[in-house]
Specification:
OB fold (Dihydrolipoamide Acetyltransferase, E2P); 5-stranded antiparallel sheet; rod-shaped
Length: 274
């Protein structure tokens, strides 16, 4: 048994957090980039979609002046993640400043061309108007598309990474430890931090030869041993599913301190005074 195997504590062990979370770091990186930057892009698209019209809707809710108009055109708007099917209604009405045209959104199937409609406009600003049963502000479909293409996959990757990190922790905690012999080592190109791809074989508890591979950080405990040319490494694998495995080093675990067993005090002979 090599020193590497001897120095790995017996199970159940206490693996260090860094040993658990770096195993699938590309998944965490991709999920973080998609979630953060995709969320920012989606937020910008959302602000661009509503513009400043949400404040106009609030003002019309508070003090809109009723009026009548006639529908000029109706353009259906498809259903999206954020809203039901709508229609874009263009109408004309007579305001204190004269005839005006404007557009508003209403539930699908509410109006037809030529309908007389009830609407409301802002006092002293009749060019800001809407249908009485409609809204000015709607969230356009590209906002939902951006959310589905970036944030949702990013969150899924982060959840998958968290599950993989938890499985790695459980593996390092109670997995069987065996000797692994490297058969091929190469530097993984275009990856930061620098990584080594280590292919190896080992024997499981039934003495069957198993093969595996592992991306190893160069500056990790395992990476330093590989670069030093050690031909015996430690691999932790699942007893029932030996294809679940990970190269490990003593630095990946919290070492138990030396046990301080109570020692018997030397018996001092009692001398009776004469």
């Amino acid at each position: 048994m090599t020193a590497t195997i001897r120095d790995i504590p017996p199970g159940p062990r206490r693996p260090r957090g860094i040993a658990c979370i770096v195993r699938f770091w590309p998944m965490a990186l991709g999920g973080g980039v998609l979630t953060v930057f995709g969320g920012l892009v989606t937020l910008m698209l959302w602000f661009n979609s509503i513009g400043g019209y949400s404040a106009v809707d609030a003002e019309l809710d508070a003090r809109g002046i009723p009026a009548e108009g006639v529908v000029l055109s109706v353009v259906p708007q498809p259903e999206t993640v954020f809203r039901a099917a709508q229609e874009r209604v263009e109408y004309r009405f007579l305001s204190p400043d004269g005839p005006l045209k404007d557009v508003s959104f209403a539930p699908h199937g509410s109006y037809e061309i030529g309908d007389i409609v009830q609407l409301e406009y802002v006092p002293q600003q009749p060019f800001r108007s809407r249908l009485a049963a409609g809204r000015i502000t709607v969230i356009h479909g590209y906002v939902g598309t951006s959310l589905l293409l970036t944030v949702v996959p990013g969150m899924a990757l982060l959840l998958a990474w968290a599950a993989a990190a938890w499985q790695t922790r459980q593996l390092l905690r109670v997995g069987d430890v065996s000797l692994a012999q490297p058969v091929h080592v190469r530097l993984v190109p275009l990856v930061v931090p620098s990584m080594l791809l280590v292919r190896f074989h080992f024997r499981d508890r039934h003495a069957r030869v198993r093969e595996g591979e592992h991306w190893v950080r160069i500056h990790s405990g395992v990476g330093r041993r590989v670069l030093a040319g050690e031909r015996r490494l430690a691999v932790v694998h699942d007893r029932e599913r030996p294809w679940r495995l990970r190269l490990a080093a003593p630095e990946d675990f919290v070492q138990n301190g030396p046990s301080h067993a109570p020692t018997r005090r030397a018996l001092i002979p009692f001398r009776r005074r004469s």
